[in-house]
Amino acid sequence: MKKGIKFGEIVEGYNIPVLNEREIRAAAGVLFLMVFISLMLIIFKENFLPIKYGITIFLLDFLIRVFVNPKYAPSLILGRFIVNNQTPEYVGAKQKQFSWIIGLVLASTMFVLMVLMNTYSPISGIICLICLMFLFFESAFGICFGCKMYALIYKEKAQYCPGEVCDVKAKHEIQKISKTQLLIMVAFVAFVFSAVYFFNSTLSVTPHSLFPVEDVEKY
Question: What sections of 68-178 are H helices per DSSP?
């Protein structure tokens, strides 16, 4: 059992334990979807049951990640299954461990407040939104906020970051944002606000059925 309790994998060519960023992002996407659907059910149906199960699953998953071995965490196993045909992208395990400890603290707080105490409050709502933000940025953009906090707190450079963001380097031409692109974004935002201002009353009208019941009954 002790052999299985470790954090990160030893991979040839890397001098520290690493993890596969691709499966981590896939797992974050799965957890984001679970939490997001649960949150929508609270908002629109006032149904708190799914979020209680979701919090329990989230907490158990992170307990396994932090205290046993990430490769035994159910969400990461599922993530590995989803992306197992993709070439691994290795990232340092140390900063991920710190990030997941933050997630574990948040999940534990939610578990106490919503599952054990059976309460809801602005505190649980804010924590839920923070978790959603962390999961979304991890899955969609590969940005790990916890990893960034690791560098600030421990005052040491994290190794093997996703997309090599830890390494200072010149941007490729295809990565640079031109003035024209900035102007397009400004114009696009102005268009969105203008559309909301001028067409909100028109677009807010409830749609009617394309095939009214009376017309269907004729056939």
Answer: 74-82, 93-110, 122-141, 145-154
